[in-house]
Amino acid sequence: MRRRSICVLAAVVGVALGGAALAPALAQDAYPSRPIRMIIPFSAGGPTDIVGRLLAERMGQQMGQRIVVENRTGAGVVVGADAVAKAPKDGYTFLYGTVSLAVTPAMFRQLPFDPVRDFTPAALTAKIPTVLLVNPNTIPAQTYQEFVAYARANEGRLTYGGGGQGTAGHMSSELFLSLAGIKMPVAQYRGNSPAMIDLLGGRIAFVMGIGAEAVNPIREGRLRGLVVSADRRLPQIPDVPAAPEVGLPGWEAYTWQMIWLPAGTPMEIVRRLNAEANTALRDPGLRQRLTADAATIIDDSTPESAAAYMAAEFNRWVPIMRAAGVVPQ
Questions:
Q1: What is the DSSP string of 21-36?
Q2: Can you tell me the distance from the alpha carbon of 19 to that of 13, in angstroms, rounded to the nearest whole number?
Q3: Which of 18, 212, 223, 318 is buried deepest, with most CB atoms within 10 A?
Q4: Residue 180 and residue 195: Cα distance in Å, rounded?
Q5: How far is it, in rounded angstroms, from Cα 258 to Cα 12?
């Protein structure tokens, strides 16, 4: 794994955006003239997929062209991200992903792309905290404290479910286990949705749920939420305490979502997609739908602010994952 200093990572702002600015300009009025692909590197039905599809539908209506969602899973987010990194630099293929892309160098020894040099961030769209979920039929814990005691008493017999190496749920879980002083191996899935199926089936101890996949099962009584990885409770599930309330003030973890284009895409297209995403996120109907799923909407990002946010998140999470003992694959 290549080491990256804070200075090198922060250069994503200049490298990614500067590279795009050097590409040949395309006529603004000619774009888009055919359907656009949104590649989501997670399974259908998961939190990123839900938001991505809603956003694709609204943006497509605004732009007068369909935005076709394609789920490409595998190796965390590597398979889907690689497809975008190698796509033509014409604005007709973009990635809708999460923090997982920013931290791939900490998760994998070898990558077919460079997350800084090979992508141009276009828009930061949303942030959603994770929720520690257990199945009340198989895990007797009623509270966070009871779960910690149960996990320690059953060390070596429990496994938690992750949505893939380096995903937000994986990182949140490892930080939680480290802060709580629990040791538990992970069973990695191709996205959170299949992990949730096994949680509901009683085959794993917990999953870090995100958005609707956490809110709905808690409301329906199928799963129990023990704590939210944020500094305040979520209004959608007000009975679930926030991390500081249970003695975990350092546990703050979000899945943030972003649009990336292949590096070298003309800057006028990058800014066009940024503007369309921001406009879509201001739509009252879309806002209501995303807010119901516990998302904090970001409708004023720029390509520059998105790139800076990505760099800051890399610099935050890589030391955390190393301290938690996560070894790159």
A1: HTSPP--GGG--SS-E
A2: 10
A3: 223
A4: 22
A5: 14
Grouping H, G, I as helix, E, B as strand and the rest as coil, residue 255 is strand
Query: Alpha helix (H) ranges present in the chain?
Result: 6-10, 12-21, 47-63, 78-85, 99-102, 104-107, 144-153, 168-180, 192-200, 212-220, 267-281, 284-292, 303-323
Tokens found for residue 276: 């369309």
244 CB-contact burial (10 Å; exposed 0-12 / middle 13-18 / buried 19+): middle
How far, CA to CA in Å, does 174 sit from each of 17, 87, 178, 325?
32, 33, 6, 9
pLDDT tens sequence for the chain (329 residues) = 444 444 444 444 454 455 444 444 444 458 999 999 999 998 888 888 989 999 999 999 999 999 999 999 888 789 999 999 999 999 999 999 998 898 888 888 889 999 989 999 999 999 999 999 999 999 999 999 999 999 999 999 999 999 887 888 888 999 999 999 999 999 988 878 899 999 999 999 999 999 888 999 999 999 999 999 999 999 999 999 999 999 998 898 988 999 999 999 999 999 999 999 999 999 999 999 888 888 899 999 999 999 999 999 888 888 887 777 777 77
- DSSP type of residue 251: -
| Rounded (5°) CA angle 49-164-126 | 40
In order of their start, the domains of the chain are 6-128+254-323 (3.40.190.150), 129-246 (3.40.190.10)
Start-to-end Cα distance in the chain: 10
Tell me the C-alpha distance between 121 and 261, whole Å: 6
* 243 vs 245: CA distance, rounded Å: 5
